[in-house]
């Protein structure tokens, strides 16, 4: 799913492109940055996995975005949303590269996606966050999300079971 670039105060949230695959993998599959994600940690990139990630920009149901600094074009992180229930509910996700942690970029990315969803007629935003991800839970709370449920999942390629909070925000 492709959209026009979402502009925030400091960031451009643009459509995911093939050239962004290694950057996304560097976050999602890193032991530290991907600690709370379902994606497996990887020391080497499997060519088939890389090919799958390169095609994310062509996904018809999920809008994968790259967050870039407006001033330099440097990539800050990844984010995405999936519209559901005829566009009335948007499920969002966001990740920031650790070199940019503690600068408010995750909240800004989320706010940009929330504003976009509102403009499209959405009534509710959801986000799933690992219970142990203190920073991301604080962001959801700061933005006014409320916990409405919980879910467990197994991290791919491991025996680790993680628990998420389901947050909702009525807009």
Structure description:
The protein is of the alpha+beta class and 171 residues long. Helices cover 23% and strands 34% of the residues. The chain has four helices and eight strands; from the N terminus they run ββααβββαβαββ. The chain has helices spanning 21-28, 47-54, 105-119, 134-142; strands at 6-7, 11-15, 63-69, 75-84, 89-96, 124-130, 146-154, 161-170. It has an eight-stranded mixed sheet, sandwiched between helices. A hairpin with a 6-residue loop joins β7 and β8. The chain is globular. The mean pLDDT is 94.
Give a summary of the structure in a few sentences.
This protein has 171 residues and is of the alpha+beta class.
Helix content: 10-25%
Total helices: the number is 4
Question: How is the largest sheet built, in terms of strand order?
Answer: 1-2-3-4-5-6-8-7
H-E string = EEHHEEEHEHEE
Distance from N terminus to C terminus (CA atoms, Å) equals 22 Å
In terms of structural class, how would the helical and strand content be classed?
A: alpha+beta
Major beta sheet summary:
8 strands, mixed
The shape, in one word, is: globular
Give the low-pLDDT segments: none
Mean pLDDT: 94
